[in-house]
Amino acid sequence: MKNTIEKALQKQQEEKLQREKESALGLEQDKQVVTDARSSAQSPIGASIVNEGEAIEDTKPKGSYSKNSMEIDIDRLQRLGFVSLDNARTLISEEYREIKRKLLQNTFGPLAGTLEKSNIIMVSSARPSEGKTFTATNLAISIAAEQDKTVLLVDADVLKPNVLKTLDITEKTGLMEYLLGDVKDLSEVIYHTNIPKLKIIPAGRSHHLSTELLASTIMSDTIEEFSTRYSDRVVIIDSPPLIGINESVVLANLAGQAVIVVEEGKSKMNDIQVAVERLNPDMAIGFVVNKSINYSDNGGYYGYQYYGSVKED
């Protein structure tokens, strides 16, 4: 009997040891699986993918900074005479501070109640090559320096887009692709920049129906969303020249303010009058004299001389 009991206890002990070994083996296998997974994530192949910029984090939303971003060479812009983002009180920075102050007063001050879409500002000129893109870009950068404002710079000169060229950035998918339906989500064509409060929508590719696309319901709805969704956002639209271009007249009906760029010594008074006649009479309209030599310390400065609204209160 004793021998039988001992045998049973011994068998029981052996079975217990066997179970412990199997359990320990299972844990070790699980640990190895985890280790292999971590090793795979840190493998040279994984590092190569990251280095090539092809890895996308699934947790980031579509249109996030990692995907839709532009790196603006700020030092280059300053060398070319653009507004400074540091605290340097350069002549051009001071001039655009004065211009933007009037625009922001129209956007958020007492006059805002009399203007429809007061935060939508189109920048145009009577004729090409008078400096409208330079002005639009400087205004956007200057307003982005405000403590409580964000800026969306839209290149709507779809016939001759120049915003990205001015910033020395490769052309990207933009407004036209969205209006054509090639891009479903507007956030896919809104690009973040290294200027924290500045975002950009490029013009995108040209299209023979650009006038109709800018006059479409989707464009109108998009501008309406820009105007109402973000109370602190200013939208600067770089528009085509006003004379001879139908697209600019369409855009004039979507904006609440217009800045007309006039090149000193070149723009003709008759052209300026014709340009103003093509604008929405309910807009606040102002003028920037560009390429002025009167304020220059270096023989020819892009500068502001006069800005005033022709809209009656």
Top keywords for this entry?
313 residues; Rossmann fold; 2 domains; 8-stranded mixed β-sheet; 8 strands; globular
Summarize the structure.
With 313 residues, the chain is an alpha/beta fold. It has helices at 2-41, 44-51, 74-79, 91-108, 132-144, 163-166, 175-180, 210-214, 217-229, 246-252, 269-277, and strands at residues 69-70, 120-125, 150-155, 191-193, 198-201, 233-238, 257-263, 284-290.
Catalogue the unreliable spans. Answer: 1-6, 27-66, 295-313
> How many β-strand runs?
8
Radius of gyration of CA atoms, rounded to a whole number: 30 Å
Number of helices: 11
Number of domain modules: 2
* Biggest sheet, spatial arrangement of strands: 1-4-5-3-6-2-7-8
* Relative strand content: 5-15%
Helix content class: 40-55%
Topology pattern, helix = H, strand = E = HHEHHEHEHHEEHHEHEHE
CATH fold topology of the largest domain? Rossmann fold
Going by CATH, the homologous superfamily of the largest domain would be P-loop containing nucleotide triphosphate hydrolases
Measure the end-to-end span.
115 Å
CATH architecture term of the largest domain: 3-Layer(aba) Sandwich
Mean pLDDT: 78
* Sheet with most strands: 8 strands, mixed
